[in-house]
Model the fold of this input.
Amino acid sequence: MKYKSLFLFYLFSQIVLYTNICPVSWGEAPTTAKIVFASRKDGNLDIYTMNPEGREQTRLTQHRSVDANPKWSPTGEHIIFSSDRDGILDLYLMEADGANVQRFFTKSADRDTPTWAPDGKWIAYNRWEHGKFSIYIASTDSRKEEQVGLGIYPTWSPDGTEIAFIEGAPRKPKRISILNVHTRRHKFFFPPKGPSWVRYPAWSPRGSKLAFSWLNRVEFRREDFEAETIYIVNRDGTALQQILAEAGPPAVNPVWSPGGSDLLYERPDVENQSQIFKIALDGNPPVQLTESGLSHFLGDWFDPEFALSVSPQPYLLTTQWAEVKKK
Amino acid sequence: MKNNLRGKIRDFIASEKGRVSIKGPLTLGIATGSVLLAQSIVGTPDAVAKPCKFNWECPDGFFCHQDGSCAKK
Done:
């Protein structure tokens, strides 16, 4: 009887300890490279995965609401995404196979555009409040929020020390700014001469470059909108490179391959439906990965060959893994 | 008894003291409530309509343009 009570107490304490230490349940990462994306192929917007050739499309969410903006956790075990399934667009977490969908925050708010820190212990995201977009960060353990700036499209650098985001008022030209996670200070990065029509910054896997979409015009004119296309620039602001020609429908929302050799992006097809394209940075022509006639939206790319969760060391302002990758 | 009480309340509200302590604040409260209700429907001056950020936020065949609004190609 005594041992039985002791065993039950031990079991209970282990359950309490486990749920406190690991608020996120364990998932199983894909064993091959997978692109996660949102699609209207089954009616409303749901989350799917496919291989880097566009095949083996698998549906992960099945809900009447909008499910979009999926991002792999650094280890590939989880996917964070935006959904309005509880009446307001907010962040949700699920396992890599779509199981165990749960709200990320207890208290709902208008949150979107999640991005993971490279150690998987923090996320950054947007909140829409008082007519403005704000950048917030939150720990995946405590889920306590902290506002770190005003802007949209936050993206955490691979070494964990910086967050690139788009700064500027709604409907006005904007700039890419880079926030130092340690000091919470940010600096304008691109374009150097002043605000322009830039959006969707994305760090290269080594953190040495940023890809983004840019409508390289002084004034925004509706008739020019097709000129928006994908660019890459070095982290030090040098070597600006236009990846796709301005001709044709606008190319937006670049996503790097984990090896850094390819970019994914969205572009409307002839039927005016958004499609996912892949372009190799060695100059090969782009390939359409998704089926025409239905809308598909990015998205993130995970490859177990390149997956390793790393912890930033504030006093070094770097991570060992980022250093290894740079070599 | 009930009618007596109702009469007393009616007399009190009609009196100078009743106007100051009940009728005035009640009118002010209703007016304030109406203004707040109208404001919540129309929206505060700094609360601009939420702009789109991604193409998926727009209906099929529409895209999220650089100025942050959904528009057809």
